[in-house]
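Dear colleagues,

For the upcoming journal club I promised to circulate an example of a predicted protein-ligand complex. I picked one with pantoate because it came up in last month's discussion. The inputs are reproduced below in full, followed by the predicted structure.
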Amino acid sequence: MITVHSIQALRAALAPLRQSGKTIALVPTMGNLHDGHLQLIDLAKQHADITVATIFVNPLQFGAGEDLDTYPRTLTEDQAKLNSRDCDFLFAPNEVEMYPNGRAQQTEVSVPAISDIHCGASRPGHFTGVATVVCKLFGIAQPDVAVFGEKDYQQLKVIRQMATDLCIPVNIIGAPIARNKDGLALSSRNGYLSEQEIQLAKTLRATLQQTADLLQQGNRNIAELQESAQQQLEQHGFKRDYFVICRQHDLQPADSTDKNLVILAAAHLGAARLIDNLEVLLSSSE
Ligand code: PAF
């Protein structure tokens, strides 16, 4: 695998490949790679000839008081992991390369409505930071395909909306959530959890599943289901962020007649803010 740190070097490397007819897949990450990221690489390789991973801890998507400074940076280990999966290129720019005029002077991409709810409400400006950096990465690498994890369900919607609205010709693929043996969604932020918290963390997935089961059994009291899930999480040591039963297509609150649902959850456990989700399809006969 070849690592490049500049936009110019990445473009110079990809241009002849593109000219010779090779297709390019992009896998944007913030590094500290785990098995979930490596599954994104595997999926990317199934969809294109050349795979480009990116590692950039994007300051624009962190709010004041969040973990920008402490976010784990493990470039050497990440390079070895990407190598082991036959990734072709790693683009690992620094902040000056990505934002040469400074953060405040950077043109931003803001995706309306969907960016302001759920994670966007808890983390104002977060999705503008995400959409801005992903838009830049699309402009830099001009990929045919880009792969993102479905753990960040709302992020995936924001990125799809951004690419559609800005007419960016890229096929965006969502990859299933990678989990540990207890069902905990893999995340770089799981590294903030103690052994004891790791054990408690599996309650997030279990609570999503219980809520999905109750919906499947015909319970349509959405507000009550959400509140009892929140209470269950609190009993296991989580601090509330949100637990919402939504419509899949626009992530607005579901009502009792909606069938294509997704349950989105975010909660704090110790020093970590964990997110997870579960799609629920109710049969139309219910
Ligand atoms: O999901 C992430 O790791 C980041 O939000 C992304 C998409 C790489 C943008 O910085």
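Two points we might discuss: Residues 28-30, 58, 61, 130, 133-134, 152, 155 surround pantoate (CB under 6 Å). The chain has a mean pLDDT of 97.

See you all on Thursday,
B. R.
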